[in-house]
């Protein structure tokens, strides 16, 4: 089924990359004729799409072994269904998250109908646009590596994913949560939310916190990860889910156990119904702990949005607003 407002021929502008490199110079806005939507797919007119580390890092070539070029950037966002299958006709005109299909940094996205996630009426667009990558990663890590009864450490504590990990760990029964931050602008906010703030430069305090920790959720890698691993007790668990420092880390001891977490490694085991239920849980969590404020950038100003994302001490999330 097709929306009455969707013409037979339309153009679609997408941020595409045909080689790997710096996103600011590698991405290019390309406008092409919109092709017919294939069976079992929904077509979604995008409203908003965030800028995340997980959107930018693949463009650099960090995961070149699993990316086929040319590719369209972006992994999440929210939009309105403008073309459906007969089985999903009830979604026509409704807001959904068009996930696990095409890149979302474009005006129209086609996604598998059974994986499109309907957005509840009480969730606004700016929250819905960010409901996938960071909330799902945090929820999966907390489920697999429980913080209950543990002293917890999160690194890159000013980031959105670490914020979810910290707050949801507290709600899941962690004895304490310590957040290691890079920019001092995050310290007061962390303390106000019940998280013990530690600057990345205070090595002595970090080592002391690590000696008591049972679980570490690390997005930084590099020297900080090695420092934590050297001080953690053998019974602890260290979960690595990012390398924001750009540096890997070495493992000097058999224990504590080190786990590498990537969302993509867990999606294949989720049935369509389990996938939808996962988001029912995420909506409930997000209502209690909405993320930081946002700044909207017109789609044409995507370079400014990326530059804004890279600013040290940033406390708001840039979102691309589609025309």
UniProtKB/TrEMBL annotation:
InterPro entries from the UniProt entry: ADH-like_N, GroES-like_sf, NAD(P)-bd_dom_sf
Superkingdom classification of source: Bacteria
Keywords: NADP, Oxidoreductase
Any single Pfam family the record assigns to this protein: ADH_N
Start and end residues of each Alcohol dehydrogenase-like N-terminal domain: 40-121
GO molecular function: NADPH binding; oxidoreductase activity, acting on NAD(P)H
UniProt-recorded name of the protein: NADPH:quinone reductase
Native species: Kosakonia arachidis
